[in-house]
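Homework help board

Subject: predicted structure for assignment chain

Our instructor gave us this sequence and asked us to write out the predicted structure in token form, then describe one feature. I got the tokens but I'm not sure how to describe them. Can anyone check?
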Amino acid sequence: MDKKIKIGIYGYGNLGKGIEIGIKNNKDMELVGIFTHRNPTDITPIYEESKIYSSNNIEDFKDKIDIMILCVGSALDLPIEGPKVAKLFTTIDSFDTHAKIYNYYQSMNTSAKENNNLSLIACGWDPGLFSLNRCLFESILPLGENYVFYGRGLSQGHSNAVRKIPGVKNAVQYTVPYDEAINQVKSGKNPHFSSVKETMWRECFVVLEENADKEKIEKEIKQMPDYFAPYNTVVHFISEDEFQKNHTSMPHGGFVLRSGKTSKNTNQLAEFSLKLDSNPEFTASVLLAYARAIYKMKNLGTTGAISVLDVPISLLSSKTKEELLNKII
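My token output:
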């Protein structure tokens, strides 16, 4: 690809920083700017040459950015800001509130299509790569059941949701699978889990603002719809020093398993797994590969909102068709 894909980063938390790092690994991309809701002068980017702008000025870049990567939170920000940005740019995001994906898709589809843009939603590793494998394995093994296990690892979306609660100074949330449940699936027993409570639990480490109501905040976390209410959740309140010492790395991972049969006594097990030292850097890498794909799709005339299931996997690669056939197939 001769022309470099011009990337904008909308939001500059851990994911936005991951995108800034990841662009350096993709020779066909360049960063135009980072757009923040904060005062740009208060932010120091990872790389000195990265330019910081106010998110209020994104309209000035309408014809200067090919793909705007949305790096704000799913809980409160993307449902409101995603459709607004999609009026101006072709976008990609990692919206991860599974129960609300279809509603989010509808609002993004309307906004993008009306403005001749393309928006890839819910792209990361789950939803995203795990979604692809759920669909693939289910298609191959129609007689069976899908299982998904996360962690132990830090969830960016859930951590961000906790940090949004008034009175919370800092927080992380770890998703922890039950080993017994994983072993049941891998043994070919095809267990039926009546709820997600039987497969994994959530552990939060929270630093409070001074004079914050501990009991109220714990209750709000545990009752948060979609994020914590369906799970067994344990909340620990810790000091800022302990947080900085033990909870600043961002590992994660998980499994997609499909246990099924191809005939009466023939069991089959398909598995896709990830073990990540940095959740945001890996998620950023997924977003950048898909940014390349939707750049190509937009140039072919595709508009509206799509998911990873709508993107031909060959478009993620920077290789030519000949190279893919010779080196990948």
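Reply (TA_rk): Your tokens look well-formed. For the description, you could write something like this. The chain has ten helices and 14 strands. That's the kind of observation they're looking for.
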